[in-house]
Amino acid sequence: MADLEKVAKIFACSQSKTLAKSIAESYGIPLGNINTMHFSDGEFQPSFEESIRGSRVFIIGSTNPNADNLMEMLLMLDAAKRSSARHITAVLPYFGWARQDRKDKPRVPIAAKMVAKMLETAGATRIITMDLHADQIQGFFERPVDHLYASTVFLPYLRSLNLSDLTIASPDMGGSKRAYAYSKFLESDVVICYKQRAKANKISHMELIGDVTGKNVVLVDDMVDTAGTLTHAANLMIERGAKSVRAVCSHPVLSGNAYEKLEESKLEELIVTDSIPLKKDSPKIKVLSCADLFADVMKAVHYNKSISGKFLM
After folding, report:
1. Domain count, the chain
2. Is there a single domain that holds both residue 86 and residue 161?
3. Residue 113: which CATH number?
4. DSSP assignment of 272-312, as one string?
């Protein structure tokens, strides 16, 4: 057991250094040393500055766009493979490009499948990720996938709020399963928003299925991108008589004018994890760390122990 502990090493991609440092501290080992050389044209070359021969290596990095984040993960996986690491686990707190998980119209790619194959080809022997946009993405991999749920982080916080007349809401039909799972643990009602899009990131119409009059509502989603859906849903629920509206979203992508939309909306609080670093602070955003969750699972993987206790959903 002591020998195994010596060969576990944790490294960070540049976009996830802060989270990786917290994970390493929670795990109880120092973060490994990586040096990245940059060329003037934008090309870069990461290198491990310590031996990883025969080691179990965890490489932590979210793959949110731009594409450099994914490319850095791929290069580090390839470098670990060529450095004779024994096991190479890609730890992706946020699995980017996951919204393209099927052909929703002719002549389009299935990017999530392509990314899965790229990670395996680069050298990943195991994947650890959290709140995939679609559960079935696990099936795109031929390697083991540990799919974690941020509910283990969010539920204790939601319980601590002691909200009366609590109702869980899904911002769209696709998230109804997630909303029902939260409602089961919180013993609350559920409402669902039905939306139609004019195009990507633009809602043409939204309707509410269920009653929110006099309720404290918590919207649950896997990610918040432009914040259009969440803010639209929050404003609609306040119009329909809700006392307050909060939102729980695992991954704070927050692109475009998302911050401005949040500030102008009726949303009281947006609760997120640190899977993606915030671009800037906001008084409406509450960040809960997922570092302990990942550290516990990584340690269990290293010692070949069960992680079933980490799955609340």
Report:
1. 2
2. no
3. 3.40.50.2020
4. EESSS--SS--TTEEEE--HHHHHHHHHHHHTT---GGG--
Catalytic residues: 195
Q: What is the spatial distance between Cα 174 and Cα 165, in angstroms, rounded to a whole number?
A: 24
Q: In this predicted model, what pLDDT tens digit does every residue of 68-85 receive, in sequence order?
A: 999 999 999 999 999 999
Does 118 lie in the same domain as 9? Answer: yes
CA distance 143 to 90: 11
Helix (H, G, I), strand (E, B) or coil at 269: strand
Distances, alpha carbon 236 to alpha carbons 239, 241, 259, 282, 298, in Å? 5, 9, 19, 22, 41
Dump pLDDT digits (tens) for 165-214: 999 999 888 888 899 999 999 999 999 998 766 566 566 578 899 999 99
- Whole-angstrom Cα distance, residue 284 to residue 214? 22
Both 17 and 129 in a single domain?
A: yes
Query: What whole-number distance in Å separates Cα of residue 77 and Cα of residue 83?
Result: 10
**pTM (2 d.p.):** 0.93
- Cβ proximity of 269 and 286 under 8 Å: yes
Calpha distance 1→180 (Å, rounded): 41
Examine the domain organization and report whether 249 and 114 are in the same domain. no
Q: Which domain holds residue 262?
A: 151-288
